[in-house]
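Re: the multi-chain job from yesterday

Posting the exact lines I submitted so nobody has to dig through the queue logs.
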Amino acid sequence: MEPLENLQLTLADLPLGSKAEVISFSDVPLSLRLMQLGFTPGTSIKVDCEAPLGCPVCISLDGDYHLTLRRSEAETIKVKLI
Amino acid sequence: MKVALLGNPNSGKSSLFNQLTGLRQKIGNFPGVTVDKKIGFCKIQSDFEVEIIDFPGTYSIYPGSLDEQVVLEVLANPANPDYPDLAVVVVDVTNLKRNMLLFEQVSDLGIPCILALNMLDSAMELGITVNTLKMSSLLGVPVVEINAREGIGLEGLKLSIFKQLKSPESHLNEEILDVEQLALSEEVGEKFGIENKYLAMQYLAQSHKLDFLGFEKQKELQNLAKNKGFDPDRFQSTDTLKRYLDIGETLKQTVESSAPKKESLTDRLDKVLLHKVWGYVIFLAVLFLLFQVVFAVASYPQDWIDAGIGQLGDWLKNTLPASKLTDLLTDGIIAGIGGILIFVPQIAFLFILITLLEESGYMSRVVVLMDKLIRRFGMSGRSVVPLISGLACAVPAVMSARTIGNWKDRLITIMVTPLMSCSARLPIYTILIALVIPEQRILGIFGLQGIVLMGLYLLGFFSALLSGWLMKLILKSKERSYFVMELPTYKRPRWSQVVYTVYEKVKTFVFEAGKVILAISIVLWVLSSYGPGDEFYNAESIVTETYPSMNETELENQLASYKLEHSYAGHFGHFIEPAIRPLGYDWKIGIALITSFAAREVFVGTISTIYSIGSSIEDEKTIKARMRNEINPETGQPRFDIATSMSLLIFYVFAMMCMSTLAIVYRETKGWKWPMIQLVYMTALAYFSALIVYQLLK
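And the result, structure tokens for all chains:
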């Protein structure tokens, strides 16, 4: 059986339009880049849209601030729905 | 005194730079690297002028790309000639939390700072208000409100710069380093003579990026980090998080944001522009429009230039006494200059449109739209920017591939970008298309010539994709890369920015490429006006003897073409003719191929020089007319018929004929291996494709 940790909801699982809060990252080098971009644990995010083939995903943070990332990158970000 | 402008990408830093310096700016390079450095001067008091340096936009002092690395290399090295006395950190108020990170880090490096709050108008629309005075007293440094786009608040900023330079104040965050790290920073500080503790820690955390230290010192720092169990990733992570805590505290006391905003303009536009279907339809429409404008609108000023140069040449020929020098001026220099100026309208239009796409924020949406599609071809969505910039010029395009973090993605992008049809190919396309494609309209509005032109561009694009796919199969790499990036909000393009960019590019083209074109035109004139052996020097008596019944004009024409054939240039052309005959070219086109090897834009200039030497005065008015009247002696048909012209067009779509691009690829890949591979594969592609086209069409 997989450890419980791996069953955690990630950003990649969220349906379009849903809102969530970032909990933690599972990829250290990527997390450093994300944090520079203001994407820290506790940040609330909203999934705006995805490119026609399902990737990349576009999300928005507080303010008029939009980021885009690939689905594989979204999978390393653990979130909880709010 | 040096003042650095620092800030996140899209924070309005460049607008502020333009506002502060006006036209008094120049573009240079940071020492040792080829990142553009913009320098300007600004009078901040009637008798006090400072030097302003615009740095590349960066999110923090931990660089993620080569451009960003310049910021670290300068700020971490007080001995660097560009090390500033003061930094103005421009922040976008709509996103203060993220923007303040860089401010805190730069302050902690011991550089006096001013915080310039920009985009307050957009923030107001989002319901964000800032208590500037309180923020200034909390941070301990001047905080000024500006509107970089409109140029509001500049006087206040200048006053603050003046005061900060006279009596510097700085903001230090003492909580970043823990006890253990403080001890470590002191050790590094003593060894390397650095007083600033945060800077000492940066030496330890990012030694591999600080090239100015030299290999020995970098090695020493790496060993020290290893021995002390120092983890750079961990340090960066806690550094960033602690700063966000501090920033959060400051913002809590100074920023008020009211009730939930309504959907912003960017949200609404993205719904359409990133739509599953409409997104692509709009993207294709934008591209289509781009080519129609470049071809249709630019043709008017081009016709004027073409006619003007023709008239100038005629006038000079009739006014000046007939001599070798007059010939050099009219057939060599004027024809050469004509070959340069005729590009200007198209280059200007292309750069205007590409700059508009970047300025408005649409280019990043194209990256999103294309990422998944283009990934199959060994590249990333970020390769779209180099590929589209490649339409203007491969040199800046290859350089812009630096934003791609992954080496393999970046290499493939660099290798295939020159296949995108750059503006230097445009004149060749334009002239040959105008010669053989009728000026028809399809559906009443779309010019057939414009459609053929677009076809050539698409051919370049698809061959770039195909080459990328092949290289993806050959190259192996396990390196990881990140795609995550900011999607800037949509903005009204700043015309001043567009004008600056276009002015810079056109100027660079006219002077840099122009120098080469002019030099080659003159060399070419010499090569075609002199020749080896008796045949050239006794041309007159030989021709007169061969054609005794001809009248004077006919004789003159015969003489001119006989001379050209036996000149040095003619010999070169004849020498390569066997190799290019299967492609449908004669020795005259051969000469143009040879000269355009250094820079393909020389082709049209060469053709015009060659034909102005070989044709009679009445027909000399325009390059186009000269080419149209050229007859293939074997068939009696026009030289530039559909088969030869298409073959030439295809040849120039693929051929790697640009020294500057090879030089830049050498610099970017740090060796001759990749540029040489590029030269060979593109030349082979060009030769065999042109061969096939000619054999099919003839």
